[in-house]
Amino acid sequence: MSERDLSDQEEIHSKVLRAGRRTYFFDVRSTKAGDYYLTITESKKFTHDDGSFHYKKHKIYLYKEDFEAFRENVEEMMDFIINEKGSEVISERHQKDFKKEDTEAEPEVEKSQSSTSSFTDVSFEDI
């Protein structure tokens, strides 16, 4: 492999975004002509029953001639989502303190039982 080929594989600038089981890599690379392009890689960790794991990766190559249209579309889609659903995350799985076991369900059941027990104390002889 020539020295030029090695430099083509080299990352010029990189940034990492960790988001739960997913990690996003933003890498600026160089074309053979010496121009720059962006790769966006999503890497997602999958764990097997035996405790071993593997990663699945998906990559997007984005070239300068597509930057403006790409940016406009991403911004439009993000604005649409925020306008329609707000910025609050609805799915509890995405909450930082999410636990698989629902420990808060029991107290609510007890509350409803205690509030309904006061209705059972009503005497119907007065009717």
From TrEMBL:
Keywords: DNA-binding. This is DNA-binding protein. Gene3D superfamilies: 3.10.450.700. Pfam families: DUF3276 (PF11680). It comes from Maribacter sedimenticola. Belongs to the PUR DNA-binding protein family. It comes from the Bacteria. Residues 112-127 have a biased composition (Low complexity). InterPro entries: PUR-bd_fam. The keyword NADP does not apply. Residues 91-102 have a biased composition (Basic and acidic residues). The keyword DNA-binding applies. Signal peptide: none annotated.
